[in-house]
Write a structure and sequence with these properties.
- Helix 7 links the parallel strand 9 and strand 10.
- The chain folds into 2 domains: 173 residues, Medium-chain alcohol dehydrogenases, catalytic domain (Quinone Oxidoreductase, Chain A, domain 1, Alpha-Beta Complex); 136 residues, 3-Layer(aba) Sandwich (Rossmann fold).
- The chain has 12 helices and 15 strands.
- InterPro entries: ADH-like_C, ADH-like_N, ER, GroES-like_sf, NAD(P)-bd_dom_sf, Zn_alcohol_dh.
Length: 344
Amino acid sequence: MKASVYYGKNDIRFEDLPVPEIEDGDILLKMKSCGLCGTDIHKALHQTVTGPVVLGHEVAAEVVKVGRRVTRFQPGDRVVTAIHVPCYSCHYCDRGHFTLCEQFKPTHIEPGGFAEYIRLPELHVKHLTHKIPDGVSWEKAAMVEPIGCCLHGLKQAAITSGCSVLVMGSGTIGLLSAQLSAMMGASTVIVSDLSTFKLDLALRLGIDHAINPAQENLEARIGEITDGLGVDVVVIAAGVSALLPQAINLLRRGGRVVVFSPFDHHNMVSIDAGRFFRDEISVIGTYSLSSYEMPEAVEIVRKNRIKLDEMITHCYPLSRLGEAIEFASNPDNDVLKVIMQMDE
């Protein structure tokens, strides 16, 4: 089978690999679409993984073979899946912190999403894999996993009817989070970004306000929009730790900051710590998704509750993964979500 294999920075090779062998509880998939995630780009450019390795995890695929014990799926089914599975019985799982489970990160699909064929281990088949609803395209189906990640983070924000939400960063995760916030009942949704293209796209998606902090004073604009009270929730969807102090300053009393994007290790920032006691604010971290968000995300896509077609700006054949990463990472390009597909 063909796969795009990451060996190192600027070294991704489209080459032949053996088709994975499945066991009795596994299924074999033929990849149809796989989203290019910001973490894939970060790993490739900053060499945070050691090659050779097949990246990719936002998978929409066709079932081509099932193990003897598999009863929920059969060849020909269209499915979506995700990459990590918790144990559901440890200290963290018992408290609902599934993504902190020691089993979570070591679990993987084989060899990765950027491959022609993918083996889903039994745990993934049991807990993370769902049929794609009729009428949903392969491209939109590949958005289920990132939607699930955003749902996981927004649940920590406790968004209620009438909330105001600021999303800092208008990439794929930022614009998904903004749309989902409105879906959850937020009455005012604001995004900020330095990209005119992404801000214009946000407005076309129905976001209330789009602010470029290089051209406007973000704190002043938030003050105008919220009558000087600040926002109830800030979602940081850009990996810039300097955004955290600003996010805290933009909060209303009792507000919450959700840190979605990874910050660099040991990157220290100064914040107004007095606000935690004085104003009962909260800062919450979030990572990945649990199996409980996957079916919710499938339903959101099935019911067209958010706009996805406008967010998918480019599709590339799998053989051109390196080119896709270079294009998507260039801030001068008008690009949001890139979907990889098998070469015809």
